[in-house]
Design goal:
By secondary structure, the chain is of the alpha/beta class. 26% of the residues lie in helices and 27% in strands. It has helices at 14-21, 65-80, 109-118, 155-167, 179-185, 231-242, 280-286, 298-306, and strands at residues 5-9, 27-28, 31-35, 41-45, 55-59, 85-89, 129-133, 149-152, 172-176, 194-202, 205-212, 219-227, 247-255, 273-276, 292-295. The mean pLDDT is 92.
Length: 312
């Protein structure tokens, strides 16, 4: 017998949660995210007595360190309050770029975050689960012990866009800003020619050149897992233009864009810049601005919940 599926969500992820629930039998879980006068969380989970032994899902958003504590409070409470199973959707594993120490004294915060997830209690009918989209470094999987993440990708959303462009007669090439991006995503684009870019030092700075591949006359689409300042992707786009690309677009799963770095990107250089709503506050801010177009993760997450029979 299938149990009810209830989706709780962080306050930063309201729009994405509503899109996931729309048109389904998934029940919205209601949480009051209030604070005491001193700023500490004052959280209340509504109707928890009606969600006993349900399949609970929590859509998390750790875009900012200040968001993390209160969400972990809810994640630790749900199993103790009697949910049957607990699946956590954390599309953007935000500490993923600090995945290794280069010198003595550096703190590997990706490992710290993994240990925090390990401390979440098991649910009534099974262990907790974690779903991450396009994790920055695969070795981070080994930092988890009590909770084993399911690693998913948002690349199918880009495949849909490429198919539309191809149907309009455009010739597509996939470009990677560095070897790391090629290693992460190259095997997902076997049907298209690929270009690999390379950062090289020039004086006090670095420039991006094309290491291999030919994009002349093609619509080159730069692919990477995340964007911060955007400098490398912009330089990669310029290199592709100089090499004869007819158009240049880009896709990154996670648009982090600290300090409003998204303002550097112009429609003159990029035909499209696709990103997902894994960082919902940024995605809501820039969707439709300049070259930016948000491809929602909602259909991918919705399909996972609908087909989730692991514990039923």
């Amino acid at each position: 017998m299938n149990r009810p599926k209830v989706l709780f969500h962080a306050p930063q992820a309201v729009a994405l949660a509503e899109s996931i629930i729309a048109g389904t039998e998934i029940i919205p879980g209601m949480i009051d995210w209030n604070h005491f006068q001193d700023g500490w969380p004052n959280i209340f989970i509504h109707d928890i007595d009606q969600h006993q032994e349900c399949d609970a899902y929590f859509l998390a958003s750790f875009s900012k360190p200040s968001d993390i504590f209160e969400q972990f409070g809810v994640l630790c409470a749900l199993p103790r309050l009697g949910v049957g199973t607990l699946t956590i959707f954390l599309p953007f594993f935000s500490t993923g770029t600090m995945d290794r120490a280069q010198q003595l004294g550096e703190v590997i915060t990706a490992r710290t975050m993994a240990r925090m997830f390990d401390t979440i209690p098991d649910a009534r009918f099974g262990k907790k689960r974690l779903v991450i989209h396009d994790i920055h470094a695969l070795q981070e999987y080994n930092y988890f012990h009590e909770i084993l993440p399911r690693l998913e990708s948002a690349i199918p959303l880009l495949h849909d866009q490429i198919k539309k462009l191809a149907a309009d007669g455009e010739e597509i090439a996939i470009a990677f800003p560095d070897d790391g991006a090629h290693k992460r995503f190259g095997s997902m684009f076997d049907d298209w020619p690929q270009i690999i870019c390379l950062k090289v030092r020039q004086g006090d700075g670095r420039i991006v050149t094309i290491k291999e591949g030919d994009s002349r006359g093609k619509h080159a689409i730069i692919v990477d897992d995340l964007v911060l300042s955007g400098g490398t992707i912009i330089e990669c786009a310029k290199a592709l233009r100089n090499a004869g690309s007819a158009k240049v677009s880009a896709f990154t799963t996670h648009g982090v864009f600290p300090n409003e770095s998204w303002r550097k990107f112009s429609s003159d250089l990029f035909t499209n810049y696709w990103l997902t709503d894994s960082c919902p506050q940024i995605a809501n801010l820039i969707d439709g601005v300049g070259p930016f177009k948000v491809l929602s993760l909602a259909p991918l997450i919705q399909d996972m919940i609908r087909s989730d029979n692991k514990y039923t």
